[in-house]
Amino acid sequence: MIPAERQQCIRELLDARGMVSIADMAEHLGVSRMTVRRDMQALERMGQAMLVSGGARRVGRIGFELPLAEKRDLRAAEKGAIAEKAADLARPGMAVFFDAGTTCLAVAEAIAARPDLRDSILAVTNDFTIVSHLMAHAGCRLYHTGGEVLRDNKSCIGETSAGVISRLNLDLAFVSSSSWNAEWISTPNESKIAVKHAILKATRATYLVSDSSKFGRLGFFNVVRPQEMDGIITDTGLPGPARELLLRAGINLILAEPSAAAEASTRAPTSPIEAR
């Protein structure tokens, strides 16, 4: 059996079971464990599997993104830690782009909380929630790209937004994604591609800010190789094998440690009265 046939068998079993072990796969295919490991590594490089201890698991595919209201409080501790690491990269006077999304919103909130940055940067975004926060909590110059409105996420997408961004000279940009791996940053929404490409071309230093739960997911459309970013800022929940894979691919990986207090607050139960 040639490698392509073995890898197809592994994919089929992953689809059926969600996870397979190297030992079971070696017995099923009648090959050595080393051969199976190499096949699994090849699938991981293609974004079609994710290695775990002793085997591999199925990669989750996303067909849509959750509305802003549903995403806002998900993994808040991780987003907060990522935001603080991201804010450390900003300097007074920089022109900074904030992509749409709740992690980029957390970055904007972190920057707005820093006296040396909140009034001195020039901020650009395609996200209405970020604009609203900076209007209320920062005195910086502030621009919105405009463009086609994506109502659920309160942001703008498409060629109009991309055209505005392409005419700018930006120092620093923070880009969001709900799906990424060592091969691709992807999206389920084709209209977001032009915006992200324009950000990369207009900016001296661009960083992906995305929590570790997004790693291993696939959107339908590939957007950009992670190596084209200046770095990826994620949380320490990223598994060891994933870290090794990204580092081997030459990616600048910046890990943020969520605080114990913040993690506890995001898990704290809400009483029926508080939930109203």
Automatic annotation (TrEMBL):
<dbReference type="GO" id="GO:0003700">
    <property type="term" value="F:DNA-binding transcription factor activity"/>
</dbReference>
<dbReference type="InterPro" id="IPR036388">
    <property type="entry name" value="WH-like_DNA-bd_sf"/>
</dbReference>
<dbReference type="Pfam" id="PF08220">
    <property type="entry name" value="HTH_DeoR"/>
</dbReference>
<keyword id="KW-0805">Transcription regulation</keyword>
<keyword id="KW-0804">Transcription</keyword>
<keyword id="KW-0238">DNA-binding</keyword>
<feature type="domain" description="HTH deoR-type">
    <location>
        <begin position="3"/>
        <end position="58"/>
    </location>
</feature>
<dbReference type="InterPro" id="IPR036390">
    <property type="entry name" value="WH_DNA-bd_sf"/>
</dbReference>
<protein>
    <submittedName>
        <fullName>Uncharacterized HTH-type transcriptional regulator YgbI</fullName>
    </submittedName>
</protein>
<dbReference type="InterPro" id="IPR001034">
    <property type="entry name" value="DeoR_HTH"/>
</dbReference>
<dbReference type="GO" id="GO:0003677">
    <property type="term" value="F:DNA binding"/>
</dbReference>
<dbReference type="InterPro" id="IPR014036">
    <property type="entry name" value="DeoR-like_C"/>
</dbReference>
<dbReference type="Pfam" id="PF00455">
    <property type="entry name" value="DeoRC"/>
</dbReference>
<dbReference type="InterPro" id="IPR018356">
    <property type="entry name" value="Tscrpt_reg_HTH_DeoR_CS"/>
</dbReference>
<dbReference type="InterPro" id="IPR050313">
    <property type="entry name" value="Carb_Metab_HTH_regulators"/>
</dbReference>
<dbReference type="InterPro" id="IPR037171">
    <property type="entry name" value="NagB/RpiA_transferase-like"/>
</dbReference>
